[in-house]
Amino acid sequence: MTALADLAPAELAGRYAEAHNAYAAFRARGLRLDMTRGKPAPEQLDLAAGMLALPGNGDHTTASGEDARNYGGLQGLPEIRALFGRPLLGAPPEQVVVAENSSLAVMHDCLVWAMLKGVPGSDVPWSRTAAPAFLCPVPGYDRHFALCEEFGIRMLPVPMTPDGPDMEVVEALSLDPSVKGLWCVPKYSNPSGEVYSGATVRRLAAMRTGAADFRLFWDNAYAVHHLTQTHHAVPDILAACADAGHPDRAFVFASTSKITLAGAGLAFFAGSPGNVAWYLARAGKRTIGPDKLNQLRHLRFLRDAAGLTAHMARQRDLLAPKFSAVTAALDRHLSGTAVSWSRPEGGYFVSVDAGVGTAERIVGLASDAGIGLTPAGATFPYGRDPRDATLRLAPSYPSLPDVREAAEGIALCILLAAIESERAAREAARA
Ligand code: PMP
Questions:
Q1: Residue 221 C-alpha to ligand 1 middle, in angstroms?
Q2: Which of the 8 DSSP states describes residue 61?
Q3: CATH number at residue 349
Q4: Ligand 1 site residues, Cβ closer than 6 angstroms
Q5: Quick one: 273 and 403 in the same domain?
Q6: pLDDT tens-digit profile of 411-421?
């Protein structure tokens, strides 16, 4: 198909009329579809239905003979740390802590404790450093950015590349002593799906930092969340940091929110022995112990590494067709435009670069047509996308037929906005 920029004026006018009519017809159907957030669909949660009856009446004794109903066990059951430590965190069981149900809450706590008390290697708490800052690969996860905003941590955007954050920029900015950390989603990054390369991991582990207490906030939310048969691997960050002589550099986070139950999973922290001792010292003031029955429930249900892999294959079978439906609709309507989109091999999102100055318009068009999209700008610090170009599509929650409908509608909105933008550019050039 001829690129929009190469169309003769009459052809462009024709394409506009066509796109406008297709959009109007879609809108007239009065659909209500939600593609805003990466929530598991009910059938994904149903995969873990068997868990609700576990560990079962009378089954409350752990491998070491502890009573899982009682207080205690701050670090979490060793058998759960062994089950999830390697695949989710790349850590041995002794370097893993099992928390409650949300890794975001664990990240929140780490940030608050760092601000109030400092981390191993801090001279003073982060809040007493002048204008502490975090590096934020963009587009990125809006809730990471919301945490920084909440606690007055400055955010410095770093462009993403197919191999992870642009390391030239990261290495230059990290020399500033007020830069305390970097948000990372190393595998199937939210929202654009990148997998960090081995070289990126090694550079992050080895780079010089101005702050002695700099931390990688390594959010491995999608460690085993593959959408294809290719199970991408990222080198273990804790080992890379230890090898590079910076053993305390990484805080690693993960959860089973998108493995078992989003609201009733298990969250994890992993780090060097020093970081784990630091975490436990703080956590021990906050709680007398986590919910070990939920830990037993997960153990009884998934059993072992093979059980985890089999469960994630069932998740993939439900999710992959929804992602294919999205990319198929984009392929069908948008080839020949300058719009580009990710083809993620894991994770929960498709990211679209719809062209400068179009994202807000597209979200508005979609909303008028009954499709809820993540607000434009959400994947950037302070909600501001300087190019107003990025859209995050979250196809997990709606049913497959609804995803097909929504993807069709979204593609029509993007196409209409792209043609409007081309017309406006020609208009401006003539003026
Ligand atoms: N990190 C990332 C990158 C995510 O995409 C999400 C969920 N959308 C979370 C963390 C939230 O994890 P949890 O449910 O463990 O709080």
A1: 6
A2: B
A3: 3.90.1150.10
A4: 38, 102-104, 141, 185, 190, 219, 221, 255, 257, 262, 267
A5: no
A6: 999 999 999 99
